[in-house]
Write a structure and sequence with these properties.
Length: 218
């Protein structure tokens, strides 16, 4: 009786371990497929807007590095969630010293982003920071970048804003590239969110409202 009981217990534990292993394997495959789909989309869109092989390599490499940065944050947090403030700081770090640059004003409550929103908002931050370093506040060394977020009411959406003002605007771009697609089409599709991106004489503003299922307010 004791031997049979022990065998039954051993088999039960083995089956539990096998189910856990299969679940983990399925999740890894799912995440890998999602990542490959994102990389493929980045490759296609970057190639579409690139004028030379050199410009493609530079832009594609920078965007992969941005995606890798978001993924590193998720891995460090066991693929659960990442503080929004840390995501902002990590993606701005290659462009400026956030804690020392008086042109950068960052404010918002403690928010933990879910994996999908970490990668999506991370890509958007990279595009905004890259544009600023090429044409905006970070390049012209004047003006201000105000990054803010809030949850106006319990259970409501996360309202995130990038507001860049005080620099010279050299007219609207003649064509829209991958960055514009990320800031408008991609983020709305990936997060089922509402987003707007406006460039005019007053500056640059990107706003997004992220549904509650993609974040947690502490």
């Amino acid at each position: 009786m004791i031997a049979i009981s022990n065998i039954h217990r051993d088999v039960t534990e083995v089956r539990k371990a096998e189910r856990a292993r299969d679940l983990i394997a399925s999740e890894v495959i799912h995440r890998a497929k999602n990542m490959l789909a994102v990389v493929s989309a980045i490759q296609r869109q970057t190639a579409r807007s690139a004028t030379t092989l050199e410009s493609f390599n530079k832009s594609f490499g920078a965007r992969l590095a941005s995606l890798s940065k978001s993924t590193d944050l998720l891995v460090h947090n066991a693929w659960t969630s990442v503080p929004l403030s840390r995501l902002v700081a990590e993606h701005l770090e290659p462009f400026t010293a956030v804690d020392k640059d008086q042109r950068m004003v960052i404010s918002g409550p403690d928010i933990d982003l879910q994996p999908e929103s970490v990668q999506t908002i991370g890509m958007a931050l990279h595009e905004l920071a890259t544009n600023s370093a090429k044409y905006g506040v970070m390049q012209q060394r004047r003006g201000q970048v105000a990054i803010s977020w809030q949850v106006a009411q319990p259970g409501g959406p996360l309202q995130f804003r990038w507001l860049e003002t005080g620099m010279a605007i050299e007219g609207k771009p003649s064509r829209h590239g991958f960055g514009h697609s990320v800031l408008t089409t991609y983020v709305t599709t990936a997060l089922d969110a509402q987003a707007s991106y406006v460039v005019d004489d007053r500056g640059i503003v990107w706003e997004i409202e992220v549904p509650p299922s993609h974040f947690h307010a502490r």
